[in-house]
Amino acid sequence: MTPGTLIAMTLDDGTAHHATVRAIIPEENNLTRTRAVRLTPQFGTTDKPLAVNQSVTLQIPVGVPRPVLSVHKDAVIQRSGSSIVYVVQDDTAQIRTIQLGESVGSRFEVVSGLSEGDVVVIRGNERLRPNDKVQISAQSS
């Protein structure tokens, strides 16, 4: 982090806001190996009144942002040491072996095996067999 970095934050009422890094205090805590950071909050509308010393949840970037292809965790099936998903092609389920990367929330990064725009089965995929007919009922994110 450097001064000027924009940080996403969430209050306990669930509202999302941002804060800008104002300063990083040049004194390290020897026990925790951490430094205090001063932020300038940018509050919008909140559902509850704000309080002095109120807790917030910060989403601090731990690396350089990069675009990734991801798939919902419920779509992935582990078989014989491989990760597979069922891709919908022409209203049928086709098995596809994929290579997974990092876990991000309820999703996995897909390193290889899928392309952007591929539709995968998330519910009922454990009972599917290749070439089974499928019907898309709703899209998930």
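Second entry:
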Amino acid sequence: MPFDLVLRNARLPERGPEPADIGVLDGRIAAIGPRLGPALRSEDAQGRLVLPGFVDSHIHLDKSCILDRCTAEGALSEAIAEVARLKRDFSEDDVYARAEATLVKAILQGTMRIRTHVEIDPRIGLRSFQALKRLQRDYAWAVDLELCVFPQEGLLNDPGTEELLFEACEAGAELIGGCPYTDSDPVAHIDRIFAIAGRFDLDIDFHLDFDLDPSWMHLDAVIAATERTGWGGRVAVGHVTKLSALPPDALTAVGNRLAVAGIAVTVLPATDLFLMGRKQDHNVPRGVAPAHRLAELGVTCSLATNNVLNPFTPFGDGSLNRIANLYANVAQLGRKAEMLRCLDMVTAGAARLMRCADYGIDIGKAADFVIMDATDPAYAVAEIAQPLMGFKRGIQTFERAAARLIRP
């Protein structure tokens, strides 16, 4: 019986220097080895690097592509206020169209699994959530999209928000998120989010500690709640820019606590670089939490996009490989092993954070893979190699031609 698809001459770093073929049956990897047999369709990777698809563990599709509507651009508080003003007028179709434009960019950059945060409050109601549920269904052929609903404007100080969060959870939200720094009682906010997670049996993903004052942290309350509820392995925190301001010994202590508690960390370098340190007029701090050092301590870590073309981040093309390269620059990582760590944090590490059980190029796993215009994974990050072709469950989802110099 022939394979449905054989991707021939794929460079799979974990399997040594020799190219291998990947055989696919019924959307799953059925065989990996040299010179596999006949197939209904064959593609030749020509010795190029093949990855199991990029994984974006933190993006905001609902408020992407609104830069042309904004007047504020700069401080975090201004960005939050600007989106709060604009989203009152978001229609479901408007959210869908903008989110779709960003999602397509991500797919074309080789992203195959995404966690998008969705704002829920009385200003927007469930319109963004409903739009992204439609998008989730419409693009299931190309990307696994999970929705994390959260109260961007606060919870206890925003009447009606909790009831809307309940509605979204009952309607199929995959996760519950929190944003305690926008609430009048941040610790009570954290406790309520854990209570909602327990009620609906959901994982949690917080926006947390988004400033550069390391003298106090809401992370302490998240760690305590995780341990108290037994939710270890089901909690992630994003940003935690305060960690960038800690000296090495203090960072190690926090990292060890996170590892023991089972709390994962997502760092968002594009947004954190843009928003942090704006009170300084010279010697401006980077404000990017050292994910690689936390990973060395056993913390599950990812790098992610966060925002695209809005007042939080007025740029972005959906490329996670570009984000990995940006982080390597900011963190001053240049050794091959360090580049590989950065790549891991937008692929396998991010998949671990999202608890993707069906991820990786291995027999029995979903046939999700992307061919990169590179042969070495470290150099793929160093050179921001382009994805040339992608397959989701064995079905091709995109392609782009490799650049070719035309000599006279």
